[in-house]
Amino acid sequence: MDYSKLGLKAGLEIHQQLDIGGKLFCRCPAFLRSEKPDFFVRRKLHAVPGETREVDAAVEFEAAKGKEFVYEGYNDSNCLVELDESPPNFIDENALDEALKISLLLNCDVYPVTQIMRKTVIDGSNTSGFQRTVLISHDGYVETSFGKVGIGIIALEEDAARLVSDDKKGKEVAYRLDRLGIPLVEISTKAELYTPEQIKECALKIGEILRACRVKRGIGTIRQDLNISIKGHDRVEIKGFQEPRIMNKTVELEIERQLRDLKEKKKEGGVRHSLDSGETEFLRPMPGGARMYPETDLPLLRIGRERINRLKKELPRLKDDIKDELRKK
Fold this sequence. Notes:
Strand content: 25-35%
Shape: globular
Distance between the termini: 44 Å
Number of strands: 17
Radius of gyration: 20 Å
Helix content: 10-25%
Oligomer: single chain
Number of helices: 7
Order of helices and strands: HEEHEHEEEEEEEEHEEHEEEEHH
């Protein structure tokens, strides 16, 4: 494929859990459990307008399913914050420090004052119907063999509840509260990736930087999405784009799918899920800014220069830096 002629343009969104011991807005332990739950809570969630007084298209789509959600919890590792029965605690300082270190390693400018936001999510993965998220930094870059790739934003947010079962034919979905609230960083690159090889290399490079920090390891601790489009087609978000073995194939198949869309005069974008075959399937409409509104239970987050200077002295060493030193010796 002539990717330049096709106008291929892509960007990555990487969601990585942090390993700092507790959760982001409560002090419950952050680990997954397999024992029988101590209690169950049943709820329905409803669509609400965001800050712009509009209901987001993705939120309306989920609301139309009319699902009922069951939440499984434990007396000794879950609390009222996770059940949305108590206001959140202030953001965990260790999680904030780690997000700032990642921002510095990716050459980002840190926001001195930032607002914790609520992102409306009513697929059941959040008991409150929203996910708390806060912008930490912006306008950084990562070095790759084909040049610098811009980092648009880095956010610190709470992970969602863990899906346990979904009766596809019925109306009931079960989630476990052990994962809800685990801190994670979201790294969004700019749309400056123009070939499948560049996309793959950039993903691996950012992953290498993250592994030098206090992050969780194993299946489900890192999730990656791809935003991709060709000339004339709306942006498409592909969820679950994280298996290096099929990254190139997924990109090529998505280009072919978008070319078919253009031929059939279908240009609309949407959120799709990556399959093991490299193909993708439709999930829901593309979300927009209408689902965001300020977190009213927490004050503005202020990040001082003294904190940044302290963290600069505590940055972990990267593999490439160590290799360069060894070569010089």
